[in-house]
Known about the structure:
By secondary structure, the protein is of the alpha/beta class. It has 2 domains: 4-181, UDP N-Acetylglucosamine Acyltransferase, domain 1 (3 Solenoid); 198-252, no CATH class. It has helices spanning 4-24, 33-39, 41-57, 63-75, 199-222, and strands at 78-79, 84-85, 90-91, 98-99, 104-105, 110-111, 116-118, 130-131, 136-137, 142-144, 148-149, 154-155, 160-161, 169-173, 176-181. The protein has a 6-stranded mixed β-sheet with strand order 3-6-9-12-14-15. Helix 1 runs antiparallel to helix 3 and helix 3 (41-57) runs antiparallel to helix 4 (63-75). The longest helix is centred in the C-terminal third of the chain and has 24 residues, at 199-222. It is elongated and about 90 Å long.
Amino acid sequence: MFGVSTLARVVGEVRRDVxxxxxxxxxARDVGPVEILAMWPGVQAVLWHRVAHVLHxxxxxxxxxxxxxxxxxxxxxxxxxxxxxxxxxxxDHGSGVVIGETAEIGDDVTLYQGVTLGGTxxxxxxxxxxxxxxVTIGSGAKLLGPITIGHGAKIGANTVVIHDVPPNSTVVGNxxxxxxxxxxxxxxxxxxxxxxxxxxxxxxxxxxxxIGALERAVAELGGPNGADGNGTPPAADVRPLRRRRGPNPAxx
Length: 252
């Protein structure tokens, strides 16, 4: 039941949640813990979820769902009371975040606004994602079904993930797929969503290169009667791909 030891555990978890906000949000680094608790909706949502989760586990009726409903109205973040949340979860901005009933979140996970840890279908049992430690999930990402997101993975903004994600990988796209495994970035959260690999640009670049090779092969086969009178067809106007570059928004 809700005793002194349980209260002490919740207080310890909240202290670590506040520290996570200060570590991962530049706007919170010069702010006191009381102000963070009062003004950061992501921290408030996790705090009230921890209370609701304890009450839910103790079999208290109505109150856990009432706390979740009030928290959603105040913060814009919906966390089912039965969801399991590890230490150091930080929800940045938070508006529109939804975490389902059977979701499991490990330690030191970072979620941005609009993230959904949702289910698929109407079956009972495990139907929401399991997110392991040190995972970063970008704005608007949708993780659906009883999938596992491996330790240290990074999910790109607006990615839709419906399959398991390997540890230490970067996933982008719809449906999401790994574009980097055991990447070079240091472990831990970062906010660099500009320099993610672009599989569509890679595919187009490969096609452009292949077209150029085929044009050269056709020119060699054409002999001296090519389209321009010199044995070669006119060169195609292929616009080179220019990848977006810029400074790392995370400051790295």
